[in-house]
From TrEMBL:
Species this chain originates from: Hymenobacter sedentarius
Pfam families per the UniProt record, alphabetical: Peptidase_M75
Gene3D superfamilies in alphabetical order: M75 peptidase, HXXE motif
Location relative to the cell: Cell envelope
Domain of life: Bacteria
Signal peptide segment: 1-15
Full protein name: Imelysin-like domain-containing protein
Key word Signal present: yes
Listed GO CC annotations: cell envelope
Domain (Imelysin-like) ranges: 55-338
Length: 373
């Protein structure tokens, strides 16, 4: 969908009265004209920085450090016990990653953190070639699917037939040990730089950029939030492997394909729960929900607050997502219609976020949707 079409669609929605709001339509000022505490954008941005982004990054950083430690130990002396330990650290870090992936704006967007951390399916053939040659550059576009958590999935779970064969492959191949180490080191380096900026000057830059125009902090976070739900969660975790776009189910394109079992669905559920918690925030504290409520945005079809409609749809989507367990790979093989239905329910939330919420907040959608919906 082209951006011009999208902006036209937003205008049509507003003209048709899809939502109503008591907000001032001028979104370029640093403070809302109402002057109410509920509409204090700086307070909202401060809450995001200090209670969402920075603490989430801290928790993920701890998990990533543990993964690096276990990787170092395993590559120094590959054993079956060491393999289990590094796998456990990978699983824990991967689950924690679902709680920070949504913050792809500012320093994270500058280095394309998501691209380096979680583009799947991984390029197994490319990884094998890199190991064989001993030469690779993780900054090349072609190397994006050869790194991050999906590459670690292959390196720890799929590079040989069973655990004993995996261990022996590391014992026998120095380049393979180095590749595993380099993948984790690249993740540590990139994330460390992003976290350092949030712990430094970027926090002040973020909370003081209080407009709603493109490039403002509110626009950056709202667009990152909407894009994450639409592209990375709805489409990436469910839509593509369910074959919604292609018409053919492709369960081999799920997250954590080589590990399988319960983990792929756990990752999707953790991501969805993060989207919900980020929207609602903490009781009594500024959040996207409290901000939209303060604008008085309502769904004109029902007269109910827009945030209630969004939360209700989140609940339906989460319930449908849970029905895909316990093994997402098996579900997409045996009852893929349930996965398609989960996508459909999430698509309803996409409209509420991307059209209704952004319109109420006077925030323009700045990313391009190529999914054709």
């Amino acid at each position: 969908m082209k951006k011009s079409i999208l902006l036209f669609s937003l205008s049509v929605v507003l003209a048709a009265g899809g939502i109503s709001s008591c907000k001032d339509s001028n979104g370029d000022s640093g403070s809302p004209t109402t002057g109410t505490a509920e509409l204090d954008r700086k307070a909202l941005l401060t809450q995001w920085a200090d209670s969402l982004v920075k603490p989430s990054y801290q928790r993920f950083g701890t998990k990533l450090t543990a993964l690096k430690t276990q990787t170092t130990a395993f590559t120094a002396a590959p054993t079956a016990t060491g393999l289990q330990s590094v796998r456990q650290s990978w699983r824990e870090a991967y689950l924690e990653w679902q709680k920070v992936e949504v913050y792809e704006f500012g320093p994270a967007a500058d280095v394309s953190l998501v691209n380096h951390f979680n583009i799947y399916p991984t390029d197994a053939a490319g990884i094998r070639q890199n190991i064989a040659s001993g030469t690779y550059n993780f900054e090349l576009a072609t190397a994006i699917p050869q790194q991050g958590f999906p590459a670690l999935d292959y390196l720890l779970n799929g590079i040989a037939a069973d655990d004993n064969a995996i261990v022996q492959s590391y014992v026998a191949t120095a380049n393979q040990r180095r590749y595993l180490t380099d993948v984790v080191a690249k993740m540590d380096q990139l994330f460390g730089g992003v976290q350092a900026q949030w712990n430094g000057a970027y926090r002040s830059t973020f909370i003081n950029n209080t407009g709603t125009n493109a490039g403002s902090s509110l626009s950056l976070l709202v667009n990152a939030y909407s894009r994450y739900y639409e592209h990375f969660l709805r489409t990436g975790k469910i839509g593509i492997p369910a074959g919604v776009m292609s018409g053919v189910a492709a369960p081999e394109k799920i997250e954590a394909y080589y590990h399988r079992g319960a983990l792929p669905l756990q990752l999707a559920q953790a991501a969805h729960a993060t989207v919900q918690s980020v929207f609602n925030g903490r009781a009594g504290q500024p959040s996207l929900k409290s901000y939209v409520d303060a604008l008085g945005a309502k769904d004109s079809r029902s007269g109910q607050p827009l945030t209630k409609i969004i939360n209700d749809q989140f609940a339906v989507s989460a319930q449908q997502l849970a029905s895909l367990g316990p093994d997402l790979y098996v579900t997409m093989q045996s009852r893929n219609a349930a996965a398609v239905q989960a996508y459909t329910e999430m698509q309803k939330a996409v409209r509420l976020i991307k059209v209704d919420m952004t319109s109420a907040m006077s925030v323009s959608v700045t990313y391009v949707d190529n999914d054709g919906d």
